[in-house]
Amino acid sequence: MFGPRIAGDNGVELRPPVLEDYKLFAEWQMQPEVTRFWGPRFTTETIATAEERLKRHLESHDSVSWSIAYQGETVGFTGLFDISWTSRDGETGIFIGRHDLYGKGIASEAVRLRMAFIWNEMNFHRTHNWIALANQGSWRANQKSGYSQIGTYPRSWFRSGEWFDEWLGEAFPSTFPADKLPSPWRDKEHPK
Amino acid sequence: MALGGIIRGKRTTLRTPVEEDLAAYSRWMADMRVRRAAGVWHEPAMPATWKERLKEQAKEQRVVLWSIETDGRLIGLARARLGGLEGAPGAQIQHFILDPEEWRRGYGWDAALALHRYFFDYLDLKRTGMELRADNVAALRIAEKLGYTEFGHGHQVHYRDGAYVDESWLLMERATWDERFGKTEREYVPLGTAR
Question: Which end of chain A is more exposed for a tag (fewer CB within 10 A), N or C?
Fold first, then answer.
């Protein structure tokens, strides 16, 4: 399924993906600047299959996908995948395809919105993720919204003569910082 | 394709799954003892669905399925994903299920050792991994004996039997296999020695 529109701070918004976004996703995943910690930089996807992929994600019963917009423009995607409805657990992920926008806090805000939705609207028990340890921007963005490290997977990625470990994290509703609850959940007029 | 070939242990044999195995697969997946210990490969289903699943499994490029037997009797299944395009070539064991009626007879250890011999001695993989429920003592004991170590521990991951259970993420490196079993667990006599 696709997640709903959630407006955040600093021009960041989560919104349901459209076909044009899927074409962008496919292009971004072929670029060296954004695939240092994302692989394998080859694909079976074509422009023609973008629509099939969108449909597959839309009809999926074990994932929730969003596009991330920054100042009205799609810049990446995030979501919850491999959902276990029995355990109320799922794997979260985020991808910022516009490398010229790194360091602007877009990922941190997108993670905050995503996690607020998961805890407040999906009644989840836990989420988890794996992130390249060297990709500090990504795991720090997750930490700010309540993720903590539960392990390190050694030598997960090989890039330019170096092995990179992976950061393993998990989060629970109780670890989400209460003072960071975004609108609409923090709004007084929001029905509880 | 991705139906496993024969791997002989001392007491068990991993072999190519056949349609006749599917009734037992379905029975195990419906067994609460199995479901408590580990995740099931598929939910219980009608025979036609299982046949379809076996057909789909055969098309898998990177995930291999074996049936496990002893004395010609089907006692379990094993399923592993082989990979390592970006990381070290390795195998991730996804399912290792034994018929509960055959538990505590040493078959799990024998089949697991044979399977790991195939990974390291035959496929020349560099590492293997698995995820186990933290209260699955028998499986953890086998993993530890093989040489697995925990690199991550998820809290309250699986819900079953009215409560959550933790998950242990385990890894075994090639060096550990070589050190513990490299000299004794060889499928073939090295040609240099045989001449």
Answer: C
Distance from CA of B158 to the nearest CA of A (A): 5
Contacts for B67-72 with beta carbons within 8 Å, 24 or more apart?
A: B67/B14, B67/B15, B67/B16, B67/B17, B67/B18, B67/B21, B68/B12, B68/B13, B68/B14, B68/B15, B68/B98, B68/B107, B68/B111, B69/B12, B69/B13, B69/B15, B70/B11, B70/B12, B70/B13, B70/B102, B70/B107
In-domain check, residue A18: yes
Query: Does a structural domain hold residue A63?
Result: yes
Paired tokens of A12: 């960041």
Q: Which residues of A10-25 are buried (b: 16+ CB within 10 A; e: fewer)?
A: eebbbbebeeebbbbb
When divided into structural domains, chain A yields a total of 1
Q: What is this structure's pTM?
A: 0.89
Cβ–Cβ under 8 Å, residues A153 and B152:
yes
Domain limits at A38? 6-180
What distance in Å separates residue B150's CA from the closest CA in chain A?
9
CATH of the domain at A131: 3.40.630.30
Instruction: List CB contacts of A96: < 8 A, sequence separation 6 or more.
Output: A34, A68, A75, A76, A102, A106, A107
State which H helix or E strand residue B53 sits in. helix B47-59
B164 and A87 in contact by Cβ < 8 A? yes
A40 pLDDT higher than 70: yes
Contact residues, chain A, for B155 at CB < 8 Å:
126, 150, 170
- The fold adopted by the segment(s) B7-194 is Aminopeptidase (3.40.630)
Rounded to two decimals, the ipTM of the complex is 0.86
- pLDDT-based confidence at residue A45 (cuts at 50, 70, 90): confident
Does A23 have pLDDT greater than 80?
yes
> Is residue B138 a contact partner of residue B103, using CB atoms and an 8 Å limit?
yes
Query: Is A78 contained in some domain?
Result: yes
Q: Which residues of A touch B (CB under 8 A)?
A: 39-40, 84, 86-89, 125-126, 128, 150-158, 168, 170, 172
* Gap between the Cα atoms of A1 and A21, Å rounded: 15
* Contact criterion met (CB < 8 Å) for A87 and B157: yes
